[in-house]
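Hi R.,

Here's the input for the nicotinamide-adenine-dinucleotide complex you asked about:
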Amino acid sequence: MKRYTDRIALVTGGANGIGKATCRRLCEEGATVIIADYNLKSAQEYASQLYSEGYSALAIHFNALDTASCREIVEKTVDIYGRLDLLVNVVGGNDLHKDLAAGELDLNYFDEMMSLNVKSMLASSQSALHYMKRGRNGAIVNIASIGGLTADYRGTLYGIAKAGVINLTRYIASQYGKFGIRCNAVAPGLVMTPAAKQNLSERQDKIFLKHISLPYLGEAEHIAAVVAFLGSSDAAYITGQTIIADGGMTCHNPTVADMAVMVSAEAAR
Ligand SMILES: NC(=O)c1ccc[n+]([C@@H]2O[C@H](COP(=O)([O-])OP(=O)(O)OC[C@H]3O[C@@H](n4cnc5c(N)ncnc54)[C@H](O)[C@@H]3O)[C@@H](O)[C@H]2O)c1
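And here is the predicted structure with nicotinamide-adenine-dinucleotide in place:
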């Protein structure tokens, strides 16, 4: 499938995890991809690797915590390629040592969390909208999280910020749809990126496997496929939406796993 031939796509956080898989997927579909990341070395190595495979990719330095940098990556893209067709806002995350339950979390961490997870996406989107409006065409895909739709025992600031991403997506879609610009989000559940693997124990993986509907955990490529769909003309009539890609974690009553075990134990008696 080549849905991105002659298209220019900018991916933040493209050097690793979901962003990295998204860059590859978009390249495979014909896009020229700009990999924006604060780990410039990894981004450059990845761009070279993609280039050696016959794809078109360029690495640029980016710091999501710096509003000027969020704008610059868009401006640089347009300076170099003359256009921007797709902006994928991937960068986000939290430090689970600081982002605790509401009563215990470090309030000094609030501004950084909002800046990393929401303000950065708004800032890069502002610049992208400026150019996309001129061409009366373009798409933005934001990476949210099921943490922005449901509550957890910790990660409160992350959840608040990702809920913001989901509503930012609706606002942009509503305000810029008439310019032919679409904005959607993906809300992943657990995705086994290097960062997630580092943070999770095998026991925690098992907890997720118990509570998702599918028998396997999420991979970055699963999310990249949804991003590629939402950014493409296949999703031409979809805007303002958040597609949940969580293996069926949030689609059901939370008691399902326990009830299933209980019912099969009763049946075995
Ligand atoms: N992995 C999951 O389980 C999961 C689940 C739900 C949502 N998400 C969301 O998906 C997105 C990507 O997550 P991931 O697991 O792929 O992350 P990751 O840590 O694997 O990759 C993040 C990338 O962003 C870059 N980056 C981090 N901070 C940056 C900054 N301040 N400026 C510029 N670049 C920066 C890193 O260098 C890295 O290349 C995040 O928004 C995250 O909240 C992830």
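One thing worth noting: The beta strands are 8-12, 32-37, 56-61, 86-89, 138-143, 181-188, 242-245.

Cheers,
M.
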